[in-house]
Design goal:
Transcriptional regulator; 8% strand; 264 residues
């Protein structure tokens, strides 16, 4: 199955990634939205400024103690075997690490595969210090990212919620809120964004965005107003100004007056 076999994938995958998969390349694909690490054309890890890393998910949940994580990074990081060290030292079971890593990978890839504004670069041979856990095809990542984007829009089609500070609505008692969502609401202060709340609670960023959109849909948090389009200068004003670039201010004023008088 090719990477772009599904048309929905094409909008989420850079042409460079398509080529790298075909080449079975190894290295790091660097984008302003995040980084994908490839080994033989498969994605083995992902990072994004918008998503908590694997270390946050493991330590905040209590699966790994912070000092145990730091010991793994110090001793096995230079050899690119942090994941293997965590398992061999008994800090986490192999299957549990795979599940947590897969969750962190998809969470970061959701952002890394999103359309960006900066250039895309590839650093051949670069490897991540977490080491091999379980690779995922770029096709599977793209399909999952597309599914997640569609899910968010079905819940509450207001993407501005994903990056804006979460503001609670205090005068709506009796709303259907789950225990998980109550914990999220307890972290809402009108300043923290969904990403900041995800890091604070040690949860995946995407799951936090889902909860925020669901809370907005039932009226528990405010939905930010869409940006107001900037006012544009009327064509006749722009034309008068262009024509009056050289003449005196008096000439410009006369032309503006004539244009105003000519308006119906």
């Amino acid at each position: 199955m090719t990477l772009t076999e599904d048309p929905c994938d094409a909008v989420l995958v850079s042409p460079m990634l398509v080529r790298l998969v075909a080449e079975r390349a190894t290295g790091a694909l660097l984008r302003d939205t995040g980084t994908l690490y490839l080994v033989d054309g498969q994605v083995v890890h992902a990072e994004s400024p918008a998503a908590p890393g694997l270390e946050v998910l493991l330590t905040a949940s209590g699966r790994v103690r912070p000092e145990g994580w730091q010991r793994a990074v110090d001793q096995a990081g230079p050899r690119g075997r942090v994941g293997r060290f965590l398992v061999e030292s008994g800090q986490v079971a192999g299957g549990e690490l795979e599940l947590c890593h897969l969750g962190a990978l998809h969470d970061a890839a959701f952002f890394a595969l999103a359309p960006g504004k900066g250039p895309t670069r590839f650093r051949y041979g670069a490897v991540h210090w977490i080491g091999p856990v379980r690779p995922v095809t770029a096709h599977a990542l793209a399909r999952e990212a597309s599914r997640r984007r569609e899910l968010l829009d079905r819940i509450w089609p207001h993407p501005e919620l994903d990056t804006a500070p979460v503001v609670p609505v205090s005068d709506r008692p009796g709303l259907p809120v789950t225990v998980r969502q109550r914990a999220l609401l307890a972290a809402v202060d009108g300043v923290r964004t969904p990403g900041a709340i995800a890091r604070l609670l040690g949860r995946p960023a995407f799951h936090t965005m889902v909860d925020v959109r669901r809370l907005a849909a039932v009226g528990a948090v405010e939905t930010p107003l869409a940006p107001t389009p900037a006012e544009t200068v009327p064509v006749w004003v722009a034309r008068a100004c262009a024509e009056a670039a050289q003449p005196s201010d008096e000439t410009l004023l006369r032309r503006l007056r004539d244009a105003l008088e000519a308006m119906p």
